[in-house]
Amino acid sequence: MYKIRLSSGHLMPVLGLGTWQAAPDVVTQAVLSALNVGYRHIDTAYNYRNEDAIGSALQQWFKEGNNREDLFITTKLPHVGNRPADVENYLNRSLSRLKLDYVDLYLIHMPFTFSPDETGDSPAKNEDGTLVLNETDHIGVWKEMEKQVNAGKVRSIGISNFNKSQIERLCNIATIQPSCLQIEMHAALQQKDLVDFCKQKNIAITAYSPLGSPGSKQHFMNKYQISLQSPDILHSDTVTKLAKTHKRTPAQILLRHIVQLGAAVIPKSSNPARISENSKIFDFELSESEMEEMKHLDQGEKGRILDFKFFKGVENHPEYPFPKAVSN
Ligand SMILES: NC(=O)c1ccc[n+]([C@@H]2O[C@H](COP(=O)([O-])OP(=O)(O)OC[C@H]3O[C@@H](n4cnc5c(N)ncnc54)[C@H](OP(=O)(O)O)[C@@H]3O)[C@@H](O)[C@H]2O)c1
């Protein structure tokens, strides 16, 4: 398995299994399927509400004689716990659900903070339906993240959905530099500027929604009654053509493209055949001119699928990371 050396010194497998929208009753089997075909990197988050079921899969795998040291497990500090006093508490909950002593990578999931409701898991709402925003102390949170490394509960720390100035601010005060930035990145949102910036800072990139998150349309309709606009990159003409040329599937072309741009990929699937398909991306290469063709699919900000505006009112948070209005 190909790996990226993080600034922490640890190695991160280039391919991981995404698990957002993988319900607890299917994710155990999905993780076992992935481990059986060679995945060693699993991406989850406190917010995905499936850490417990992932922990069960890992326990089963260890019982079969496999080693914890061979795995790379990522989880994330939730938006409702994004304050210094809460870091250790939410990490402990994730560790206990995952049934692990440490995670390989702990990420600040989002740069903004909400007040938790009475369950502690979801954002509290104002009377008008907007979410209750809290001030976010990135520096204080980062200092607590560093303490978790020193306590041995986390091997590497990083961020997700942060923009350049937020990253810069952290790097300026960090004793332990962020190892990884996890961002939306796919053919329609290639993120060249942010990727180049992170390269200079020795921050590895993990690309989320690398297939264009085709399951999200239904998810957002069911959960928020929102009609999500998302580019259908799996069916784009260029990708279909390259799939034919290389005798590969469109998903394999999309994943290979991102890997050749230097990022790790974490495609989500709960389907054993697709989990296996998504892992077969290391035995072919897109040529320079094919990479150039893929470049033309980049729509910049217009290609972004997850702008988080389904969190009603989030764009009014001072740390909202994306442009508020996207021009056509
Ligand atoms: N940090 C963050 O804020 C953040 C945000 C979003 C996502 N993520 C992480 O990134 C992971 C991946 O992103 P994502 O889940 O948004 O989207 P994705 O991986 O781009 O797409 C997943 C969807 O594609 C389908 N799929 C998988 N393999 C396929 C194939 N070979 N051919 C056709 N369809 C296929 C899956 O359905 P089946 O399951 O039915 O195969 C699922 O509906 C997440 O699961 C999560 O771990 C992080």
Descriptive overview:
The chain is of the alpha/beta class and 328 residues long. The protein has one domain: NADP-dependent oxidoreductase domain (TIM Barrel, Alpha-Beta Barrel), CATH 3.20.20.100. It is built from eleven helices and twelve strands. It has helices spanning 24-36, 51-63, 87-98, 138-150, 164-173, 192-200, 216-224, 237-246, 250-260, 272-279, 288-295; strands spanning 3-5, 11-13, 17-18, 41-43, 72-77, 103-108, 113-114, 133-134, 154-160, 180-184, 204-208, 264-265. The strands form three sheets. Strands 3-4-5-6-9-10-11-12 form an eight-stranded parallel β-sheet, covered by helices on one side. Helix 1 links the parallel strand 3 (17-18) and strand 4 (41-43). The protein is globular. Bound molecules: NADP nicotinamide-adenine-dinucleotide phosphate. NADP nicotinamide-adenine-dinucleotide phosphate binds at residues 18-21, 43, 109, 160-161, 182, 208-216, 234, 249, 251, 266-271, 274, 277-278, 306.
Distance between the termini: 40 Å
| Count of folded domains | 1
What is the CATH topology assignment? Answer: TIM Barrel
In total, how many beta strands? 12
**Any idea what the CATH superfamily is called?**
NADP-dependent oxidoreductase domain
Q: What low-confidence regions span 5 or more consecutive residues with pLDDT below 50?
A: none
Give the ligands present: NADP nicotinamide-adenine-dinucleotide phosphate
Instruction: Give helix and strand order, one letter per element, not per position.
Output: EEEHEHEHEEEHEHEHEHHHEHH
Q: Classify the helix fraction into a percent range.
A: 25-40%
